[in-house]
Specification:
Elements lengths: L2 H42 L7 H30 L7
Length: 88
């Protein structure tokens, strides 16, 4: 390949790379906008985005506690109704 062809190919490659960089910048800008929108929605619900993990963990604990209490109440109800249940 002569020098002129090499130079032409190098320029084409530079243009392709420049276009890829612009596409990546566009996707990055779009992703940043989406993050801002999501953070605004989270804040609107009274949660700071940087505390989201801790908030989710606290909610998981509360849910586990509620389910445990519900199961306990069901067992108590089952025990209380046992004398009145027929042979099923």
């Amino acid at each position: 390949m002569d020098l002129e062809n090499r130079l032409t190919e190098a320029v084409k490659k530079r243009e392709r790379i420049g276009q890829a960089v612009q596409r990546a910048k566009g996707r990055l800008d779009s992703a940043r906008e989406n993050v801002e929108k999501i953070e605004a929605k989270v804040r609107k619900r009274g949660i700071e985005p940087d505390q989201l993990g801790a908030t989710l963990k606290a909610l998981e604990v509360r849910l586990d506690t509620a389910v445990t209490e519900f199961e306990h109440q069901l067992n108590e109800a089952d025990t209380a109704l046992a004398p009145y249940a027929g042979d099923e």
